[in-house]
Sequence to fold (251 residues):
Amino acid sequence: MTFDGDPGPASASLRARVAPGGVLRAGINLSNFLLVSARAADGAPVGVSPDMAGAVAGRLGVPLQLVPYASPALLADAAQRDEWDIGLIGAEPQRAQTIAFTAPYAQIEATYLVPAASPLATIDAVDAPGIRIAVTGGTAYGLWLDRNIRRAELFRTATMDETFADFRDRGLDALAGLRMRLLDDAKQLPGSRLLDGRFMAVQQAIGVPRRDDGLTEEAVAWLGRFVAAATASGFVAGRIRHHGVTGLSVA
Fold:
């Protein structure tokens, strides 16, 4: 894995801001199967997000420590507990209260799965009175729905597997999720179908915890240049190809 982009020099001052302990602790969301697509023999997460974290550590000249979380909500909640230095997670306004984000480096489409014989035919038709939507709480697309759904009712569960079971067992009207995950879910429900288009695209970015010491801006500025170089140089596209990920595109 090589990174040929140039985000600018990593000074000792910058390293002290981004990795104050001398080791870059990178928060990784294990539930996003497009960004963490495998595990190493020792159980360490493997995929585009760990590769991005490794490239950041390499440019800073510090060791990398991956800090895994079972869900994006848990990763985001840990922002103010000094558990990680950078977090690779979907950039959402709710999270931006405690996390300062770069521009995105990748994006993932989110849409709906509807059961057989459903009258729902378009994305816009889902937000209507009486419509019940199953969604995994705390995900980037779930937070988007929290902000934007006005007439339908959201039924939140903690994990994607629980959300699918809730949708199936309670006979809910729509299942919100990442397109590639929903394609797998549809195989378990004969006659079900994905709606065309998307209601949003999850913007995967790098974030740092917001602090009151005035150092956040410098860290985010350098990481922003890193992301710009990683996308422009083809590094992100190359890691997506390397891991054989379908459904994830360069932002």
